[in-house]
Amino acid sequence: MKGAFTGAASDREGAARRADGGTLFLDEICEMDLDLQTKLLRFVQTGMVQKVGGDRTEKVDVRFICATNKDPWEEVEAGRFREDLYYRLHVIPISLPPLRARDADVIEIAREVLKRLAREEGKEFAGFSSEAEARLLAFHWPGNVRQLQNVLRNVVVLNDGEEVAASMLPDALMKGGAPILAAPAHGGAASAEPLTEDGIRPLWITERETIEAAIEACGGNVPRAAARLEISASTIYRKKMAWQEGKSS
Question: Which of 21, 31, 79, 123 has the most CB atoms around its CB within 10 Å?
């Protein structure tokens, strides 16, 4: 309300009042102070709000959507989040896995982000080279989707062309040695590795031959080969990078 505190020069509707009849989105809910959690619990239970400086309560009807990058129940057990508020809000939980756990989704998301950024920057980028896609799939993405967006904005701003090449990607995605090449045909270099003295072949050699054979059988389509092998495409890309760097895992 006007005059409720220094700087309150006019009446202003709060977020809850403006969301009446719609949705109130509470981001990073697990970062909320415990005292404020108490007030939020009261609001969730009663649907009543009172303006700062006001003398009456008002009824509002809102849908709550909350987001957090923490495990809410772990926060409850640690005493940082009220258990009663947790049960009030935890009605229809939706888990969004991080980018590193979404396999080929990385490429689909990257393509959409690239198109949007290309429009914003007036560039002609329309897709990625196969090597660039392999790098995107193999990267761990500790910064999740925001990191992917920043990487692609860097590429679009600093480069020109219709296709994003691997050489345009930041150093962090290129670390690890040689570019990823097409898998050799079944029976290539991997099968030439020597046996041990007792005739047992190292497991990584057998694994490599199996993966390369699956890729060949799927016409070079790594995601399809991964699905047939019941592993993730990103696992195959990481293993291919390791093989080319002279590692066995």
Answer: 123
CB 5 within 8 A of CB 53: yes
In this prediction, residue 54 carries a pLDDT of 74
Rounded distance between C-alpha atoms, residue 191 and residue 189, angstroms: 6
Chain center to CA of 44: 30
pLDDT tens digits for 183-217? 333 334 444 444 455 556 677 777 888 888 888 88
Phi, psi of 52 (to 5 degrees): -65, 125
Over residues 213-231, the pLDDT tens digits come to 888 888 778 877 887 887 8
Residue carrying the six token digits 């990191």: 147
Alpha-helical (H) ranges within the chain are: 15-18, 34-46, 72-77, 83-89, 105-121, 130-138, 144-158, 171-174, 203-217, 222-229, 233-244
Residue by residue, DSSP assigns 182-212 as PPPPTTSGGGGSPPPTTSPPPHHHHHHHHHH
Indicate the pTM of the whole model.
0.55
> How much is the mean pLDDT over the chain?
82
Which two tokens mark 143? 């910064």
